[in-house]
C-alpha cells in the first residue's frame, strides 16, 4: 500500500494542499484590521449560517458542505505568499499581517450533520469564537455551503423522481473544474450511485463510471468498427453509445458487435419517451432482453419523473445537477447573531434591513417527530435544549476549541453523510416528495425561554 | 522582492500546484485504454470547442478561460497519487497506466483570444494532437470555458448597462470557493473594475476592494461607535454600510462620524431607485456633496439598467455575475471534427444526433468588418485562410507542439485579455448592447473551399 492510498483510507489530504486563507472577501480582513485597533477583535461572538428561504419554493433543502469545509479550514493558514500579497497591497496594516501569520481557528463549530435536510431559518452552522477568528471564515464557509447544498438539494429531488433506478452524475464539464469535484461528492451524498469525475473517486471515494463518447465512434472508420473495438477492450457488458448517426442502425450495430449479452446502450439525444420505447422493443426483438438502457439527454428531476413509465434502467444527469437545477446558489448567509458584552453576558444581535432581517441569539434546533415522522423544525432561541424523547436534536460538534472531529472528513465522512441523508429523507412526510412549487414540507417554529412558540 | 512576488510578476504559479489530471471524466481514460489497444490512440485528430447557441437568446458571448486553462494544462500530469488510484480501481489497464505516467501534451492549440466576443458555432478553440492526447483534455477545457465564459458573458452586459459607472464583483460566497477566483478574473476581463476576492488579487492581479459588513455594526454597542471606529482605522474616505438598522439614521450617523468628507455610503437592501434618491438628497442636505453612493442589493444587468437615472456612483454585484445571470453553464461542447486517415489526409467527421449535430472539418474564422464595425462571423470550413484587409482573423496560437506561449498566462495575460475585450466590444454594432432577448448581433457564415457561403 502506498503512502497515498494509506492517506486516502485515513482521509488525509496531501500536505501540499494550497492555502485557503485568501478565498476570502477583502472586507473581512479590513474588519479584522479595524477590530484589532479598537479592541473588539477578541470579543466572543456567535455567527450563524442559514437560509431565509428554500430555492424555487421547494419542499426541503439538503445541507452539504461541512466535510469539505473542515478540510479547507485545516488549510486556512496565511503563509508567506498570502502575507506578502496583503502587505504589498496594503490590504491590512503590518500589525494585522503579524496577527494573520499566527492565525489558527481556536473556536468551536457545531451544526446540522452533512446530508441533513433543512428548512427556512434552520441554523445550519454555528461558529463560536472571537470576532476576528470567526469573521474571516464567512466567505469560505458560504462558498462551500451555497454550492454544495445547491447540488445536493437538486440531486435529492432527482433521486426521488427516479424512484429506485440508479443515477450517475456526469456534469463536470458544466461547472468550474474544482466545483465539479464538489458536485460529484454532493450528488453522491444525496443518493446518486456514481459519478464520471475521477478526482471525486480519488479524493472522496465516490464510485466512478463511464465508457465512451461520440468521439470514439467518429475516430473509427465505421460505428460497427468502433463498437467491436470497445467490446474487445471493455468486454460485452460495456455500454455502447448508439446515437452518433442513427439510433436504429446503432442498436443493430451494437448487438452485432457484442451479441445478445451486451451490457447496455446509451441514448444521448432525441425525444426520450418515444426513443426509449423503440429501443427497448428493438433490443428485445434482437434477443438482447437483458441489455440495459441508460439515458443522458438534458435530464432534470421533471424529465426523470416524465420517464417514470418508460423502460429506462438508469439515468445520467449532467448540467441540471451541477447547476442546482435552476438554483445554483442556495441563498445561505452568515450572520453575527450574538456577542458577549463587557460583563461576559451573551447579547443577541440582529440586523433589521428590509427583506434581510436576521434573528439574534444562540439557537438549539430539533426535528420534531410524531411516531417517527418529522412534523416540524423547532428552534429554541436563547440556546436552551428543547424537545421530547421523540424529537431528534440536530446539532453535532464539528470543531471543539480548535480541534476538528475527524469522523466528519474524508471518504468516511462522505459515507456517513450519505447514510444520514437516507435516514433524514425517509423520516419526512410524503408531501416532501412533491416536485412542484409549494410550502416547505415542515414549518419552522421558534420557542423562547418561556416556552412560547411562534412561526418563523 | 520575495521569490513569490517575482513569480507573481512573471506569472509563474507555485510548483506545488495540485495535479489537474483527474479533473477528467472516467470515459476519457476508458477510450484511451481502448485506443491504445486497437491502434487508434496515435491517430492525428482535431477537436473543436464551440457553443451551438448563445444562452438566453443574448446578442453575444464572451470567450474567457484560455489563460486559466493553459496553466491547468501545465499541471495535467499523472503523478503517483493519480496513477495509484487508476491502478487500484482498475479504471484502465496497466499498459495505459504506464502511458499516462508519461503524459505530456505535445500537440498544438489555437483559438479565439481571451476576452473575444463569440457567436453560435464560433470555433473558440482548436486542439490538434493524437486522439489520446486530445481526448483527455475534454472535461478540463470545458469546465473552464463553460464557467468562465458564463461569468464574462453576464459581466459584459452589466458593464454595458452601467454605462461608465464602475462595477465591483463581490459574489465569491455564491459560487464554489475556487470558482469564485475564476469568476473574479472573468468579470475583470469583461470590464469590472475590481473584486472582493483576495485570491484573485494575489493570483491574477485583479484590484480588490471592501470595507465592512453588517457584522461590523452589530459587533459594536451602537452604529455610530462602529462608524467612528471604522473611520479611525480606514480614514474618512472609507465607505460606510448604512442599512443595518435604519437608512436615514444610518446616513446621519455616517456623516456625524466621518464629516462631510466621507468617501462613500453603501446600501444593501430596500427599493433602490427610491432609496438612492433619498440618500443623495440627505447627503447633499448634510453637506456631504462629494460622498459617493454604492449599491449592492441583488443587482443584475436589468436592475443596473433600471438605475440609469439614479444618482448611483458605483455598483457591487454578487450572485448574478458569478452565476452567469441565469446561465451558469455556457453550453459549450468539445467535438472531434477531423482526423487523419491511413493515407495521412484529413477527414472531416461529424455526429448527426438530432439537435446536437456538429460541423466537421478544420476551421479558419475571421470577424468580418465594414469600416471598422463588425458585420459577421465568417468561418472557412476546410481551414483555408479567408477574409480581406478589413477583416480580423480570430485565431492565435496558444500552444505549438507542446510549448505554451506564456504571453497568455498569469496577470499579464489577464491585462491583455481585458484590453482585447474592450476593443472587441467597441467594434460591435450598436444592436449588441440590447439587453432583451433576440438574434445574435452578428450572423455566422460558413465558407467552403469553393468560396460558397451559407448561414450557420
TrEMBL record, chains A, B:
Q: How is it modified after translation?
A: Transiently phosphorylated on a His residue during the reaction cycle. Phosphorylation strongly increases the affinity for substrates and increases the rate of nicotinate D-ribonucleotide production. Dephosphorylation regenerates the low-affinity form of the enzyme, leading to product release.
Q: Where is the Nicotinate phosphoribosyltransferase N-terminal domain?
A: 22-144
What is the E.C. number?
A: 6.3.4.21
InterPro entries for this protein: Aldolase_TIM (IPR013785), NAPRTase_N (IPR040727), Nic_PRibTrfase-Fam (IPR007229), Nic_PRibTrfase_pncB (IPR006405), Nicotinate_pribotase-like_C (IPR036068)
Pfam families from the UniProt entry = NAPRTase_N
User: Known catalysed reaction(s)?
Assistant: 5-phospho-alpha-D-ribose 1-diphosphate + nicotinate + ATP + H2O = nicotinate beta-D-ribonucleotide + ADP + phosphate + diphosphate
| Record's keyword terms, sorted | Glycosyltransferase, Ligase, Phosphoprotein, Pyridine nucleotide biosynthesis, Transferase
Q: What domain of life does the UniProt record list for this protein's source?
A: Bacteria
Enzyme group, top EC level? ligase
| Summary of the function given for this chain in its UniProt record | Catalyzes the first step in the biosynthesis of NAD from nicotinic acid, the ATP-dependent synthesis of beta-nicotinate D-ribonucleotide from nicotinate and 5-phospho-D-ribose 1-phosphate.
Family, as annotated? Belongs to the NAPRTase family.
Q: What is this protein called?
A: Nicotinate phosphoribosyltransferase
- Report the source organism: Gulosibacter molinativorax
Q: Tell me the organism's taxonomic lineage.
A: Bacteria, Bacillati, Actinomycetota, Actinomycetes, Micrococcales
Amino acid at each position: 500500500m502506498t503512502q497515498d492510498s494509506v492517506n486516502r483510507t485515513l482521509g488525509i489530504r496531501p500536505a501540499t494542499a494550497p492555502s485557503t486563507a485568501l478565498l476570502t472577501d477583502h472586507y473581512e480582513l479590513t474588519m479584522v484590521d479595524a477590530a484589532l485597533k479598537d479592541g473588539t477583535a477578541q470579543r466572543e461572538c456567535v455567527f450563524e449560517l442559514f437560509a431565509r428561504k428554500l430555492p424555487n419554493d421547494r419542499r426541503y433543502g439538503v445541507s452539504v458542505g461541512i466535510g469539505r469545509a473542515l478540510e479547507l479550514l485545516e488549510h486556512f493558514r496565511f503563509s508567506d505568499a498570502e502575507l506578502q500579497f496583503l502587505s504589498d497591497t496594503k490590504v491590512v496594516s503590518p500589525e494585522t499581517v503579524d496577527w494573520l501569520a499566527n492565525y489558527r481557528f481556536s473556536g468551536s463549530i457545531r451544526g446540522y450533520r452533512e446530508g441533513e435536510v433543512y428548512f427556512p431559518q434552520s441554523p445550519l452552522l454555528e461558529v463560536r469564537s472571537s470576532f476576528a477568528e470567526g469573521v474571516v471564515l464567512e466567505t469560505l464557509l458560504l462558498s462551500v455551503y451555497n454550492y454544495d447544498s445547491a447540488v445536493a438539494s437538486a440531486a435529492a429531488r432527482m433521486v426521488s423522481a427516479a424512484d429506485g433506478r440508479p443515477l450517475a452524475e456526469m456534469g463536470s464539464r458544466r461547472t468550474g473544474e474544482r466545483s465539479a469535484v464538489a458536485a460529484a461528492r454532493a450528488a453522491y451524498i444525496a443518493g446518486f450511485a456514481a459519478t464520471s469525475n475521477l478526482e471525486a473517486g480519488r479524493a472522496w471515494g465516490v464510485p466512478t463510471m463511464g465508457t465512451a463518447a461520440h468521439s470514439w465512434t467518429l475516430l473509427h472508420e465505421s460505428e460497427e468498427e468502433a463498437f467491436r473495438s470497445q467490446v474487445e477492450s471493455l468486454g460485452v457488458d460495456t455500454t455502447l453509445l448508439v446515437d452518433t448517426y442513427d439510433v436504429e442502425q446503432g442498436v443493430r450495430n451494437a448487438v452485432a458487435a457484442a451479441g445478445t449479452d451486451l451490457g447496455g446502450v446509451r441514448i444521448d439525444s432525441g425525444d426520450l419517451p418515444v426513443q426509449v420505447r423503440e429501443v427497448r422493443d428493438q433490443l428485445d426483438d434482437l434477443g438482447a432482453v437483458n441489455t440495459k438502457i441508460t439515458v443522458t439527454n438534458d435530464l432534470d428531476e421533471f424529465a426523470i419523473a416524465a420517464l417514470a413509465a418508460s423502460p429506462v434502467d438508469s439515468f445520467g444527469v449532467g448540467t441540471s445537477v451541477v447547476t442546482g437545477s435552476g438554483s445554483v446558489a442556495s441563498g445561505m448567509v452568515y450572520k453575527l447573531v450574538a456577542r458577549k458584552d463587557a460583563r461576559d453576558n451573551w447579547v443577541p444581535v440582529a440586523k433589521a434591513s428590509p427583506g434581510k432581517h436576521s434573528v439574534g441569539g444562540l439557537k438549539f434546533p430539533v426535528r420534531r417527530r410524531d411516531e417517527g415522522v418529522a412534523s416540524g423544525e423547532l428552534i429554541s432561541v436563547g440556546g436552551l435544549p428543547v424537545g421530547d424523547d421523540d424529537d431528534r436534536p440536530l446539532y453535532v460538534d464539528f470543531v471543539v476549541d480548535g480541534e476538528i472531529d475527524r469522523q466528519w472528513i474524508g471518504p468516511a465522512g462522505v459515507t456517513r453523510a450519505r447514510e444520514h441523508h437516507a435516514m433524514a429523507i425517509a423520516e419526512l412526510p410524503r408531501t416532501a416528495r412533491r416536485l412542484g412549487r409549494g410550502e416547505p414540507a415542515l414549518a419552522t417554529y421558534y420557542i423562547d425561554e418561556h416556552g412560547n412558540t411562534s412561526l418563523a
